[in-house]
Design goal:
The complex is a heterodimer of chains A (492) and B (356).
Chain A lengths: L1 E7 L2 E7 L8 E5 L6 H9 L6 E6 L2 E3 L4 H6 L2 E4 L11 H5 L6 E2 L2 E2 L1 H15 L14 H14 L4 E5 L7 H16 L3 E5 L6 H4 L2 E6 L2 E7 L5 H9 L19 E10 L3 E9 L3 E6 L5 H8 L5 E8 L2 E3 L4 H6 L2 E4 L3 H5 L6 H6 L7 E2 L2 E2 L1 H15 L15 H13 L5 E5 L7 H16 L3 E5 L3 H7 L2 E6 L2 E7 L5 H8 L6
Parallel strand pairs in A: 3-10, 3-11, 6-9, 9-10, 15-22, 15-23, 18-21, 21-22
Antiparallel strand pairs in A: 1-2, 1-4, 4-5, 7-8, 11-12, 13-14, 13-16, 16-17, 19-20, 23-24
Chain B lengths: L7 H47 L7 H26 L7 H19 L3 H30 L3 H20 L4 E2 L6 H5 L1 E2 L1 H4 L7 E2 H19 L1 H11 L1 H6 L4 H27 L1 E2 L7 H11 L11 H20 L4 H27 L1
Antiparallel strand pairs in B: 1-4, 2-3
Helix pairs in contact in B: 2-8, 2-11, 2-12, 2-13, 3-4, 3-5, 3-11, 4-5, 4-11, 8-9, 9-11, 12-13, 12-14
The chains are: A alpha/beta (492), B mainly alpha (356).
Chain lengths: 492, 356
C-alpha cells in the first residue's frame, strides 16, 4: 500500500499511509484508538475505497472495490467481531458463499472434503457439525482462519486476535500463525497488546493521527519505544483551564465495589462536587459498562452507589434520573435521541412531568425551556420544531445535553462526549462542562481520545478488564504512563 | 470558540427571538395543516360529486351517508387501538377474535345478570371492556417481559379467543333477552333536531365512535403517555434511558387495543341484538389496513388517530360505493387491496419527494 489517504466529513482519517508486507511476514500495526488502523484495514477489505493512493499485490497494481474483490485478490479479513453465521455449522460457515454444488443442489460431501482438507493442513480439529454460536471464541477464530484459507488467502488481516483468548489459546494461535508463515502467507496484525508483539511480529509500524510514523523490525522496537511513538505529540492546547477542586468539596458520587454482568468487576471511586474524573482505557476495557451500570442502563449485580452521601438503588434509568444522575451516552443516534422527533420533544423527554399539568403536556412551557436551551447551548437549529435528524452531529449532541440540563441532575456521566463532532462544537462542549462544575456538578468522563482525558480531567482512572488498574492525578498523568497501564505493559 | 461566559443579555435576546420565531413556526404549521385539510376537503367533495354521478344520486343521501358512518364504526374503533400498537412497531392480530369473544361473554352476562335499562348497558360494557383489557394484558406480558414478537403473542390470542368464543356459545349466536341495547344498536341521537331537515339523526354508535376517536387523539397528541408511545416507537433504547418505563407504556398500548376491540364488540352486539361467535372474523386485517391507509408507519414512531379514522372512512366509502354500483364482492376485494397498496406507495413517494 502506498500513500493511502482517506477522508471522512470533517476528519482526515488516513493521511498518506504507506507500508508493505512481504510473503511469510507478520507485520504489526499499532496505534491509539482512532489513529486510523481500522480505516486502513477496511480499505484493504474493500469496505471503504481510498480517496487516493495505490495498492499493489505481487507487483500488480490492483483496485479493491468491494469485499468480493478483496477475496479474489487473496486478502482474508478476521475482524474482532467475527463474521460467522451463528446458526450454521462449522463447515457451512467455512464454505459460505462458495458452496460446492451438484446441479441445483448443495454438495455436502464436497463441502466437507474442502473444509477438512484445510483443517488437516492447519493441523487443527474443530467440531465440524456444531453451530457457530456454540463454538468457543478460539474455535470461532479458527473457523474464520479456515474460511480465509479455503478462499486461498495469501494475506490475512487480523484485528485484535488475542483480545478474548486465554494464554493457552494465544499460544496455539501463535503456533498456527508461525506454521502459515512458513507456507508464505503474510499477516497484518493489529493489536493493542504491546507485550505480545516481540513474540509474534517481524516488523512493527506505528500509526498516529492517520500517518505511518515509523516502521522497524520488531527486535529493534521495544514496547517503550512503541508507546513513545504512539503518543508522541504534545497535548493540544485547546482545552480550557480547569478550576481546581476545593479539598473539602462534598463527595457527590461514591461508587463502591460496583459489579455488572458485562465487564464491571468491582469498581470503586468517588467524585467531588466541581471535579471531573476521566476514565481512560482501551476499547472493551469496561469504561462504558461502568458508567452504564451507574446510570441504571445496565443492571448492576453488586456494589453500592451513593449520591450526596445517600445510597441509591439504581435498578432502572428512571431511578438514576430521580437520584440526579444523567448519562450522556456514546452513541447518540442509537441511545440518546429519538431522531424522528423535534428538538423540543427530545429536550423535554426525560423530564416531561415538569412540563405537564396532570397528564397533559403544556406545550408553551416546553417551547419556553427548549428555546432557553437552544440559546444557552447555541444549538444551530431554525426552531424548536426542527426534527433532530436534520441537525449536524455537534448540534445533535447539544440536544442530548439539553435534555439532561433541563433536569436537576448534578452527577453527569459523559461517554465519549465529543465523538464525531467538529472542533468548534468540541470546545463548546468543554465550556459547558466547566459551567456544570461551577454549578457544583460532579462529572465522570469516558473518552478514547487520550489528550481529551488528560486535558479535561482532574483525576484519571485507567480501566482494564473491568477494574480500575491505576489512578493518576492530573499532574502525574503522562500519555505514556496511561497507555502503559491500559495496554497491560506495566502492572499498576 | 465561545467565550466562557456568554453575557446573559445575549442569551435572553436569542431566546426572545426564538420564542417569536416559535410563534411563526407554529403559525406556519397551522397554515400548512389548514391547507392540507382544504385540499383533502376539495378532493373529498370532488370524489362525492363523481361518485354521486356514478351512482345516480344514491350515494349523497342522508340515509346512505349515515349508513356509511355506521358501517365504519367498528373498524374505526379497532383502528384507534391498532394505531397505538403500530406506533410502537407492534401489531395486534387478536382484535377480530376479541370482538367475537367479548360479544359472546357480554351477551351471556347480560342475559344472566337480571339487570335492565341503562344499568345493564353500563355493567355489560364494563364486563366486556374488562375482558378485552385482560386479553390485551396477556398479549403484552410476553412481549415486554420476554421480548417475544407481538405478531406471535397476538396470533396465539387470536386463536385462543376465537376458540373460547365458540366454546362458550357452542357455536351459536347468543340472542339478547333485554331490549336495553336497542338504542345503541339502531336508534338515533338528535332525532328531533335533525328530523325537519330530512335527516334521521346521528346513530348513537357513531357518537360513541367519534368520542373514542377524539379522546384517543387527545391522548396521543397532548398527554405524556402519548408522547412516550411515540418516543418508544421512535427509539426504544433512548426512551428507556430517558427514564421512561417502556414496559409499562407498551403494556398499556395492548390493553387499550383490547379495550377498543371490546367496545367494537359491544356495538356489534347491540346492532344485531345478539353476541355472535361469527361476527368480526378478519376484522384485525381491516383495522390494520385503515391504520396503514391513514399513513401510520409499520416501523413505528409516527402515527395519528385521526388519520386512521380517515383511513377507515375511506375504506368504508369505497365499500359503500362499490355496493351501490353492484360490484360483486370478489371484485371489491381486488379493488380494496389495490387501493391499500396505492395509498401506502403514494405516501412513501410523497415522503421521498419532500425529503429532497
Amino acid at each position: 500500500m502506498a500513500a493511502i489517504t482517506k477522508s471522512f466529513p470533517g476528519v482526515r482519517a488516513l493521511d498518506g499511509v504507506s507500508f508493505e508486507v512481504t510473503a511469510g511476514e507478520v507485520h504489526a500495526l499499532v496505534g491509539e484508538n482512532g489513529a486510523g488502523k481500522s480505516t486502513l484495514m477496511k480499505i484493504l477489505a474493500g469496505a471503504y475505497t481510498a480517496d487516493s493512493g495505490t495498492i499493489e499485490i505481487d507487483g500488480q497494481r490492483v483496485s479493491i472495490d468491494g469485499p468480493k474483490a478483496a477475496e479474489r485478490l487473496g486478502i482474508g479479513m478476521i475482524y474482532q467481531e467475527f463474521n460467522l453465521v451463528p446458526d450454521l455449522g462449522v463447515i457451512e460457515n467455512i464454505v459460505l458463499g462458495i458452496e460446492p454444488t451438484r446441479g441445483l443442489f448443495l454438495d455436502a460431501q464436497a463441502a466437507t472434503e474442502r473444509a477438512t482438507a484445510v483443517l488437516v493442513e492447519l493441523g487443527i480439529t474443530l467440531p465440524l457439525d456444531r453451530l457457530a454460536r456454540r463454538l468457543s471464541v478460539a474455535q470461532q477464530q479458527l473457523t474464520e482462519i479456515a474460511k480465509a484459507l479455503v478462499r486461498h488467502a495469501r494475506l490475512i488481516v487480523m484485528d485484535e486476535p488475542t483480545a478474548a483468548l486465554t494464554d493457552r489459546e494465544t499460544d496455539a494461535l501463535f503456533a498456527l500463525i508461525a506454521k502459515l508463515k512458513a507456507t508464505g502467507v503474510a499477516f497484518v496484525y493489529i493489536s493493542h497488546r504491546l507485550e505480545e508483539l516481540p513474540r509474534i511480529a517481524d516488523r512493527i509500524t506505528v500509526i498516529r493521527d492517520g500517518r505511518a510514523i515509523e516502521t522497524r523490525p520488531a527486535s529493534a522496537m521495544p514496547p517503550d519505544d512503541v508507546i513513545r511513538l504512539m503518543v508522541g505529540r504534545a497535548l493540544e492546547a485547546h482545552f480550557p483551564e480547569l478550576p481546581s477542586v476545593a479539598p473539602d468539596a462534598p463527595l457527590r458520587l461514591i461508587v463502591r465495589d460496583l459489579r455488572a454482568a458485562r465487564n464491571v468487576n468491582g469498581v470503586s471511586f468517588e467524585v467531588r462536587a466541581g471535579e471531573i474524573v476521566g476514565l481512560a482505557g482501551l476499547v472493551g476495557a469496561g469504561r462504558t459498562e461502568i458508567v452504564r451500570a451507574i446510570a441504571g442502563a445496565d443492571v448492576a449485580t453488586g456494589g453500592q452507589i451513593a449520591v450526596d452521601g445517600k445510597p441509591v438503588a439504581v435498578r432502572s434509568p428512571h431511578a438514576a434520573i430521580e437520584a440526579g444522575i444523567a448519562l450522556i451516552t456514546e452513541d447518540r443516534k442509537a441511545q440518546g435521541l429519538v431522531l424522528g422527533m423535534t428538538v423540543r420533544e427530545n429536550t423535554t423527554l426525560a423530564h416531561l412531568a415538569a412540563y405537564s399539568r396532570g397528564p397533559f403536556i403544556n406545550r408553551a412551557a416546553e417551547v419556553g425551556v427548549t428555546n432557553h436551551e437552544i440559546a444557552e447551548l447555541q444549538i444551530r437549529t431554525p426552531s424548536s420544531e426542527q426534527i433532530v435528524k436534520n441537525l449536524s452531529g455537534g448540534n445533535q449532541q447539544k440536544v442530548v445535553l439539553a435534555k439532561w440540563l433541563t433536569g436537576d441532575a448534578h452527577v453527569f456521566l459523559f461517554d465519549e462526549p465529543t465523538r464525531g463532532v467538529d472542533v468548534g462544537a468540541k470546545a463548546e462542549i468543554y465550556m459547558l462542562m466547566l459551567q456544570l462544575l461551577a454549578r457544583g456538578a460532579a462529572i465522570v468522563m469516558v473518552s478514547s481520545e487520550l489528550p481529551e482525558v488528560l486535558g479535561m480531567s482532574h483525576r484519571i482512572l485507567v480501566v482494564r478488564d473491568g477494574k480500575i488498574a491505576a489512578e493518576f492525578s492530573r499532574a502525574d498523568a503522562t500519555p505514556a504512563a496511561v497507555i502503559a497501564v491500559a495496554a497491560g505493559v506495566v502492572a499498576a | 470558540m465561545t467565550p466562557p461566559d456568554t453575557p446573559p443579555e445575549s442569551v435572553h435576546e436569542v431566546k426572545a427571538a426564538l420564542d417569536a420565531r416559535a410563534g411563526d413556526a407554529l403559525a406556519k404549521q397551522k397554515r400548512q395543516a389548514a391547507l392540507r385539510i382544504g385540499i383533502a376537503l376539495v378532493a373529498f367533495i370532488a370524489l362525492i360529486v363523481v361518485v354521486n354521478a356514478l351512482t345516480a344520486g344514491d350515494f349523497f343521501t342522508a340515509g346512505n351517508l349515515t349508513n356509511v358512518l355506521r358501517q365504519i364504526t367498528y373498524n374505526a374503533i379497532l383502528a384507534v387501538g391498532q394505531t397505538f400498537v403500530i406506533i410502537t412497531a407492534g401489531i395486534d392480530l387478536s382484535v377480530g377474535s376479541l370482538i367475537q369473544l367479548t360479544g359472546v361473554v357480554m351477551a351471556q352476562f347480560a342475559n344472566a345478570s337480571g339487570l335492565g335499562g341503562p344499568v345493564l348497558v353500563i355493567a355489560t360494557t364494563i364486563v366486556g371492556i374488562a375482558v378485552g383489557c385482560c386479553a390485551g394484558l396477556v398479549n403484552a406480558l410476553p412481549v415486554v417481559r420476554l421480548n417475544l414478537p407481538p405478531f406471535i403473542t397476538t396470533l396465539a390470542m387470536m386463536l385462543m379467543a376465537r376458540g373460547l368464543a365458540f366454546k362458550l356459545s357452542h357455536g351459536q349466536p347468543v340472542p339478547l333477552k333485554s331490549d336495553a341495547f336497542d338504542a345503541l344498536g339502531t336508534q338515533y341521537a338528535l332525532h328531533d333536531l335533525l328530523a325537519p331537515f330530512g335527516v334521521p339523526g346521528i346513530p348513537w354508535a357513531v357518537l360513541v365512535m367519534l368520542t373514542v376517536v377524539i379522546v384517543f387523539a387527545v391522548v396521543l397528541t397532548r398527554t405524556r403517555f402519548g408522547r412516550y408511545v411515540l418516543a418508544l416507537g421512535g427509539n426504544e433504547e433512548a426512551a428507556r434511558l430517558a427514564g421512561i418505563n417502556v414496559r409499562l407504556v407498551k403494556t398499556f398500548v395492548y390493553v387499550i387495543s383490547g379495550g377498543c376491540a371490546a367496545l367494537a364488540g359491544m356495538l356489534l352486539m347491540a346492532r344485531f341484538s345478539s353476541g355472535s361467535p361469527q361476527t368480526g372474523v378478519g376484522s384485525e386485517l381491516q383495522s390494520i389496513a385503515a391504520v396503514v391507509v391513514g399513513g401510520t408507519s409499520l416501523m413505528g414512531g409516527r402515527g395519528s388517530v385521526v388519520a386512521s379514522f380517515f383511513g377507515a372512512l375511506l375504506i368504508g366509502v369505497l365499500n359503500n360505493v362499490m355496493n351501490l354500483l353492484n360490484i360483486e364482492s370478489y371484485t371489491q376485494d381486488i379493488v380494496l387491496g389495490a387501493v391499500i397498496l396505492l395509498a401506502v406507495m403514494t405516501e412513501e413517494i410523497r415522503k421521498r419527494v419532500f425529503a429532497r
